[in-house]
Amino acid sequence: MSGPDAIAKQFVDFYYNQFDNDRSQLASLYRESSMLSWESSPFQGSTAIVEKLTTLPFQKVLHKVSTIDAQPSSPTVASLLVDDSEHPLQFSQVFQLIPDGGSYYVLNDIFRLIYG
Amino acid sequence: MSGPDAIAKQFVDFYYNQFDNDRSQLASLYRESSMLSWESSPFQGSTAIVEKLTTLPFQKVLHKVSTIDAQPSSPTVASLLVDDSEHPLQFSQVFQLIPDGGSYYVLNDIFRLIYG
What we know:
Order of helices and strands of chain A: HEEHEEEE
Function (chains A, B): Has a role in nuclear-cytoplasmic transport of proteins and mRNAs.
Shape of chain A: globular
Structural class of chain A: alpha+beta
CATH topology of chain A: Nuclear Transport Factor 2, Chain: A
CATH architecture of chain A: Roll
Strand order of the largest sheet of chain A: 2-1-6-5-4-3
Domain NTF2 (chains A, B): 7-113
Number of domains of chain A: 1
Distance between the termini of chain A: 35 Å
Pfam families (chains A, B): NTF2
Protein name (chains A, B): Nuclear transport factor 2
Largest sheet of chain A: 6 strands, mixed
Oligomer: homodimer
Main location (chains A, B): cytoplasm
Number of strands of chain A: 6
CATH class of chain A: Alpha Beta
Number of helices of chain A: 2
């Protein structure tokens, strides 16, 4: 992977595909220092984050990504903004990715529903 | 300022107040390494960013902030997500702030309109 746009595209494809198929597998993307803000509720660490994600009140979900904005930050960090326009819920989600042995993990994850 | 929530609140109040009163004064918040993504268009450096902000096709604007999500990142960084529900335009904006001599500057700024 090279460049923030390519990293963003590959990460987003992987993340939401994994989310829609088996959310428990997302644990590998987080570390103990990772933080999730889910509709203003804070969760820290891979275990707490994945517990939140796997206990969301729905079984089947399909994400459709409409737009991705990515920027490099420090030389080692990429931030993403994803807008999802799938009916009926719109959301905006921001990830901050940290390089880790040739791959990336999620340090910051902010999720917010958008009410039209 | 202390804690990401307090930093976020203070920054957001200052930023949008300045934006609504005199956008050219926002130059002090950016550095040459700063990046703005405005509806997918990239701008780098304080001069280019402020030129973009000051030539937006409107004269009067009033931001009304509805929600702020903040997370600390590395010990030196805060990220913010702002949702603005003011009629008629909704947007989501992400700032990454870097400490600089007791204050902060904007390293990353991603702006995206939300279409309901």
